[in-house]
Amino acid sequence: QVQLVESGGGLVQPGGSLRLSCAASGNIVSINAMGWYRQAPGKARELVAGIFSGSNTRYADPVKGRFTISRDNAKNTALLQMNSLKPEDTAVYYCAAGWNQLGPYWGQGTQVTVSS
């Protein structure tokens, strides 16, 4: 099993920045992909960004050019730097991890609210 713990969410004004962190523990040799999904009220969960073996990255169109995902392998941590935040980025952000895919391991989620 792998445990994922997110941190870094909060309230920020439009145009501001936040950095989310996801720390993995447990059987970490069973994962080579980490990433983030988000779910806004009344909407389906959607992919935000993922980082895969070879440091290949994937981003959802709405966040391209604003969000950057990275991974610190020494600390078994994935980071999501979010810049130029918009109100529509408001959601619960979930960390996900797995082997060549974002799952089946999930974190509990962290709230990100973008509002003036």
Give an account of the 3D structure.
- By secondary structure, the protein is mainly β.
- Helix content is 0%, strand content 53%.
- It contains no helices and 11 strands.
- It has strands at residues 2-7, 10-12, 18-26, 33-39, 46-51, 57-59, 67-72, 77-82, 91-98, 105-106, 110-114.
- Strands 2, 4, 5, 6, 9, 10 and 11 form a 7-stranded mixed β-sheet that branches. Strands 1-3-8-7 form a 4-stranded antiparallel β-sheet, with no helix packed on it.
- The termini are far apart.
Quaternary state of the chains = single chain
Distance between the terminal alpha carbons, to the nearest Å?
40 Å
The whole-number mean of residue pLDDT values reads 96
Report the count of strand segments: 11
A few lines on this structure:
This protein has 116 residues and is mainly β. 0% of the residues lie in helices and 53% in strands.
Please describe the structure with a list of short key phrases separated by commas or semicolons.
116 residues, 0% helix, seven-stranded mixed beta sheet
How are the SSEs ordered, and which strands pair?
Layout: E1 2-7, E2 10-12, E3 18-26, E4 33-39, E5 46-51, E6 57-59, E7 67-72, E8 77-82, E9 91-98, E10 105-106, E11 110-114
